[in-house]
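Annex B.
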Amino acid sequence: MATKNEVVIAAIGFAGILVTGILSNYDKIFATESSEYESSNDINLQARNFVEISGMRAGLEVMEKQRIEKLKWKYNASPETIDCMMGAGIQTSQLIDLTVDVLKKHLTLKELKELNEFHSSPSMRHYIDQQAAISKDLIDGIETLAEKNHIRNLALALNNEKNHATSTQSCPTK
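DUF2059 domain-containing protein: predicted structure tokens.
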């Protein structure tokens, strides 16, 4: 099961990807008309549409698959044990329900409709189609950086223990 820090890092990365994509394609997104969005006056439906249209569900599903792979690697557990571990954790459906409630709390029906239209544009559709792969690559990169940092910290700690009595060196940069 993912630790709280891993979930926070993944959520920050997910939000960063979404914002970067929107800002970098702003001119392309608003230059075309939307094509796949159907309007409704039901705020629950609009919030759920946003979860689907924005690619949020796909991102959550990728994170869930990565958690499964990490559990397999970390515990060398059977598929049945992994299923049990995942079943005891936070489910994607729970995260989606929470997201819908939070969206309704902070956005109006009109804003959700506009966001859904925006996310239905051809440029955003392409970005969203790539979002799961982008999220996976980002999380893999974060894990690689964290592992490198862990190795560096171990080396620093061992070096510090060996040289503790005679060292006045500040923290090395490499």
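Confidence is low (pLDDT under 50) at residues 30-36. The chain has one domain: 4-142. Further annotation is deferred to the next reporting cycle.
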